[in-house]
């Protein structure tokens, strides 16, 4: 597949998650809720996580922002659901590596997240892409401190 075709496919995946977000909404009961925003561009994410027995039982998000920010949140919630917390954090670390342009070699299924790899070419957009991931890391830290 040519670079132009791959780039077009990745744009389609991003726009699909933006227009048809997965896991949009909130969780009730004792879900962890973290609010994060990117004051540079106005992106705002509220992440809801349900963690049981060291597994991400469920993940949902609400928010407003650009296509990169919201599609990244959609992709993240898809990929971390059902994972052990440590694996979710490892995926977050891999995503951070992708955002700084590192080549990654992993057996972990990253799902649609690979579609965001072109964001590293636009440093101002990296904060948009990582907002939901930082919220997840903060939620896990908060849960571990409780």
Walk me through this protein's architecture.
InterPro entries: NIF_FeS_clus_asmbl_NifU_N. GO terms for molecular function: iron ion binding; iron-sulfur cluster binding. This protein has helices at residues 3-19, 67-80, 85-99, 123-145; strands spanning 32-38, 43-52, 55-64. The chain is of the alpha+beta class. It has one domain: Alpha-Beta Complex (Sufe protein. Chain: A). A three-stranded antiparallel sheet has the order 1-2-3, with helices on one face. The termini are far apart. The relative contact order is 0.19. The mean pLDDT is 91.
Give structural attributes.
single chain, 146 residues, Sufe protein. Chain: A, 4 helices, iron ion binding
**How many DSSP-defined strands?**
3
Strand order of the largest sheet: 1-2-3
Quickly count the domains: 1
CATH top level is Alpha Beta
Spatial separation of the terminal alpha carbons: 48 Å
In short:
By secondary structure, this protein is an alpha+beta fold. The chain has helices at 3-19, 67-80, 85-99, 123-145; strands at 32-38, 43-52, 55-64. It has one domain: Sufe protein. Chain: A (Alpha-Beta Complex).
